[in-house]
Amino acid sequence: MKICSLSLDGLLLIEPKVFGDARGYFLETFNQARYRAAGIEQEFVQTNQSRSKKGVLRGLHLQNPNAQAKLVSVIVGEVFDVAVDLRPASRTFGQWIGERLSQENHRQLFIPAGFAHGFLVLSDEAIFSYACSAPYSPEAEIGIRYDDPDIGIAWPIERPILSEKDRAHPYLREIPIERFELQPKRKA
Fold first, then answer.
1. Is the dihedral of CA 181, 182, 187, 188 positive or negative?
2. Residue 67 falls inside a structural domain
């Protein structure tokens, strides 16, 4: 397994070791001891999967309280995956990074709590997987417009397919900065 730190503190690009032959391939998608040794301390409590067609853009999403760290990957297809640093005390607040994740490159992106996340499907369809360190909490959900000019994400598409919910998200400047201060997890 190869792990690279990215330009935004805490973001990690993971390239699992893939064992392949004429029958196909095998790879380890998570091993708690190996990932902890690499600095990923989170315990993942929920795993989600989505299927989307080409041009679908999902995001930008995060939640607080009950902030989620995520370990994301693509099972089928290819996506342009984006993380935006929304940790108010971070020197890179409001900055983003984008990585291509695909069934061919088997890459994973580790996204710490305090980042917004979104992805754009580049292939005809994509099956996307993400493990989360906290369960989904609708009342804690925060959304940011995918095309916020203050963030300036260079999405490789002009007219993505969006849900009504994602289309209606506010710009970052319209959300009080205190909303992003990481809050302790609430008891269920």
1. positive
2. yes
Burial of 13 (0-12, 13-18, 19+ CB in 10 A): middle
Active site residue 130: yes
pLDDT, one tens digit per residue, over 118-151 is: 999 999 999 999 999 999 999 999 999 999 999 9
Q: Which residues contact 183 (CB under 8 A, 6 or more apart)?
A: 64, 65, 66, 67
Predicted structure pTM score? 0.93
Across the range 91-102, mean pLDDT stands at 98
State the total domains in the chain.
1
CATH number at residue 22: 2.60.120.10
- Indicate if 136 belongs to the active site: no
Whether 75 maps to a domain, the answer reads yes
**Tokens 């996506």 -> residue:** 79
Please tell me which residue in 61, 106, 117, 169 is annotated as part of the active site.
Answer: 61
Number of helices and strands in the chain (H, E): 2, 13
- Domain holding 137, by residue range, is 2-173
